[in-house]
Structure formats: structure tokens, C-alpha cells
Design goal:
Layout lengths: L10 H5 L1 H13 L3 H4 L5 H8 L3 H29 L1 H20 L4 H29 L4 H29 L2 H6 L1 H17 L4 H8 L11 H30 L4 H14 L1 H13 L4 H20 L5 H10 L3 H11 L4 H33 L3 H22 L9
Length: 403
């Protein structure tokens, strides 16, 4: 009798593959909406709730802090309740937080709603790579390209719509409408979770887990430092690029356009890097290219910012190519979903912890030196750390071999 594909322990995975494809894409689309739907409205909310720059700074630091915290705790959560149920929790928290924030009557509820939504999105950051590993182990490059590109688009769209929707309707509508998208993402995960194996059984099928072991490996630290230095540089430029432009003689509006360009250029590496990484035995040359791009961009922004601002910012926008590289390597350097979850959590937990320091140190060095030389020297030093870390992260190896 011929073997039926509907039989066997992996039948639910095969049957649910199309549903999982839709679910992963929708989940990725939600992972930044709580961040970029808020920041364009902070001045308006400050006037509404009468808070100043200190509270604006707190709200600005919450995303990286939440991503760091939940990057470290999510692997344990996955082992306790399983991948699919963790994805359900991700979208439940995101939906609840977005609705709480939209209904806020004061700054306290604004903070609570943001914290709840960002908790969900921090968990989601970690759970997506092992979900790709579970359902699409034979299509890691394709699915990584897709979900990272959707994540980038989901970063840009809320920022573009925030002010126009608030002007046309109300800031509550502008903040709350993204709960519709997170609810849409919740539905397929509820269906998948109904048929998912028990967490203990899934972990046993995947092999030994990495509790407390990733931090003992050169691969883990290479991935974490590469991702951390990438995120640190990215958030530093998101925060300070407008001021760099203004102090060079540009208008505030032009500074805003440069940030938009910097963000938009990031879509190109998202489309190209995962496919390249899958085809390269050792993708370290990508990190070497990133180091060179950063050197050119930082030198241009420091010494001749208005000579060719579009060129420097375009080159700088290609610098975070190690972001999609890191997310793709999570699955290329692991054999099992449990290994992928452990590496994803450690990389993003440590990485986003370092990213929290970037904008603060970049600004402090600007005040200390009275210019931007020390600030860009700091970013160049971080790029050097990134290059060394990438040497360890990109070498052909598997995390499970280190356990």
C-alpha cells in the first residue's frame, strides 16, 4: 500500500502549511506597529497629557527594553506552552495593548498599554524564526526573505499613516486601528494551536533544548554581538540623524526626509540578504561589505554632510544588512525549532539590550566633544566589534554541536 502523506506524526504540520504561511506573514506584519504608530504622535500626546521630554524619552526607550527583556524570557515560554500557543499569546498581548493605549485617559494608561503591546511584539520577535524552522525548514531562505520584508513594511506603514489618520479622525483611531491587524493575525494561530503537539512532546521531538547553554558558545555571542551592534547603530541614526542634518545647515523637514530615506533603503537588504546567505557556505563577506559601507557613510556624514546627503544616507541605509543576515542565520545555524528558539532569544535579548545604549551614548559623546566626531568614532568602533562578531557567527557550524 502506498504511503499516505496524511499519516504519521508530522501530518498536522503538512496539512497546516498553507495556514502557517498566512499566519507567519500576518505575525511579521504586526511586530513593529506599536513602535512606529506612536512616535510620530508623541508631540501631540505630550500636549494632550501634559508630559515633557523625559516621558518622551521613556516612551522612546521602551521598545528596545521590551525586546531585550522578552528576547531572554521567550525561549522558556516556548518550552512551557509550545510555539503555536506562544504565537497566540503574542497577538493577544499586542491586541490588548494597542486597545488599552488607544483608550488611554492619561499618561499612566499610555505607558501600560505600550508595555503590554511591546511585550507581545518582543515575544513575537523570538518566536517567528523557530516557527519558520518548524513549518518551512526546506524553504528557510524564501520564508526569511518574505517575513523580514513584511516586517520592514510593517515598520514603515504605521509611521506614514499615523499623522494623516490622526488629522482626519483622531489620535485614538490612529493608535487603535492596528489592533484590527493583530486580531487578523490571531485567528490563524488559534486554528494552528488547536492541532499543535503538546509542548513537552514537541520539545522531545526536536531534541535537547538549550536552557542556559547558548551563552557558553562562540556562535551565540557572535550572533548576539553582530545583531546588537547592528541595532545599536540603527537606533542611533534613527534618533540623531535629523539633528546631524540640522546642525549641518539643513531644515528640520529635510532631516525627517533623510530618516525616511534611511528606513526605506533598509527594504533592499531584506529582499536580497536572506537569499544570498542561504547560498553561501560562509556569508562573512556580507559583514565585510557592511563594515566598508559604514566607514564611507559615517565619514561622509561627519566631514561633508551637505555635500552629498542623499548619497551618505543611502549608503548608511544599506549598513544594517546584518539585521536580515542575523535573522536568517538563526535557522541556518540550528537543526531544530528548539535550537532556533534558544538562539533567537539569546541573540535578540542581548542584542536589544546593547541597542538601548546606542542613542544615549551617541548623544552624550556629542555633548562631550562639542561635535559629532566622537559620536561617529563610537559607531565605527561598534562596526569593528560587529565585524569580529560576524567572523564567529558566519562560520559553518550548528548550535546543537556545541551542547
Amino acid at each position: 500500500m502506498p504511503h499516505s502523506p496524511a499519516r504519521g506524526p508530522h501530518a498536522p504540520l503538512l496539512k497546516g502549511r498553507l495556514l502557517a504561511f498566512v499566519a507567519v506573514v500576518l505575525l511579521a506584519a504586526n511586530l513593529r506597529s506599536a513602535v512606529t504608530s506612536l512616535t510620530p504622535l508623541l508631540d501631540r500626546l505630550g500636549q494632550t497629557f501634559e508630559f515633557g521630554s523625559t516621558m518622551t524619552g521613556v516612551l522612546g526607550m521602551m521598545p528596545t527594553a521590551a525586546f531585550a527583556l522578552f528576547g531572554l524570557v521567550t525561549p522558556r515560554l516556548i518550552r512551557a506552552i509550545g510555539l503555536e500557543r506562544t504565537a497566540v499569546l503574542t497577538m493577544l498581548l499586542a491586541t490588548a495593548g494597542l486597545l488599552l493605549r488607544a483608550s488611554a485617559g492619561g499618561v499612566g494608561m499610555l505607558l501600560v498599554g505600550s508595555a503590554v503591546a511591546l511585550a507581545g511584539m518582543g515575544i513575537g520577535n523570538v518566536v517567528v524564526p523557530p516557527l519558520v524552522k518548524r513549518y518551512f525548514a526546506d524553504r528557510v531562505g524564501t520564508l526569511s526573505t518574505l517575513y523580514i520584508t513584511v516586517l520592514q513594511a510593517g515598520t514603515m506603514l504605521p509611521a506614514l499613516l499615523a499623522v494623516p489618520v490622526a488629522d482626519r479622525f483622531d489620535w485614538r483611531i490612529s493608535l487603535g486601528m492596528w489592533a484590527l491587524l493583530s486580531t487578523a493575525a490571531l485567528l490563524p494561530w488559534l486554528l494552528l494551536a488547536r492541532h499543535a503537539p503538546r509542548a513537552q512532546a514537541a520539545a522531545a521531538a526536536d531534541g535537547p533544548h538549550a536552557a542556559g547553554r547558548v551563552w557558553k558558545t562562540p556562535l551565540g555571542w557572535g550572533m548576539a554581538l553582530m545583531f546588537g551592534m547592528t541595532s545599536l547603530g540603527t537606533y542611533s541614526l534613527f534618533t540623531w540623524l535629523p539633528k546631524v542634518m540640522v546642525e549641518a545647515g539643513a531644515s528640520e523637514a529635510f532631516g525627517g526626509v533623510m530618516v525616511a530615506l534611511y528606513s526605506a533603503i533598509g527594504l533592499l537588504p531584506s529582499l536580497l540578504v536572506p537569499a544570498l546567505a542561504v547560498r553561501m557556505r560562509n556569508p562573512f563577506p556580507i559583514a565585510v561589505l557592511v563594515f566598508g559601507l559604514n566607514a564611507v557613510a559615517f565619514a561622509g556624514l561627519l566631514w561633508a554632510p551637505m555635500a552629498a546627503p542623499w548619497l551618505w544616507v543611502t549608503i548608511a541605509g544599506l549598513g544594517p544588512s546584518t539585521f536580515p543576515l542575523g535573522l536568517t542565520l538563526i535557522n541556518l545555524r540550528t537543526r531544530t525549532p528548539s535550537g532556533s528558539a534558544a538562539l533567537s532569544g539569546f541573540m535578540q535579548g542581548v542584542g536589544y539590550s546593547l541597542a538601548c545604549l546606542g542613542p544615549l551614548l551617541f548623544g552624550w559623546l556629542h555633548e562631550l566633544g562639542g561635535g559629532w566626531a566622537w559620536s561617529f568614532a563610537f559607531l565605527m568602533l561598534c562596526s569593528l566589534v560587529l565585524l569580529v562578531a560576524a567572523w564567529f557567527a558566519c562560520r559553518p557550524q550548528q548550535l546543537e554541536d556545541h551542547w
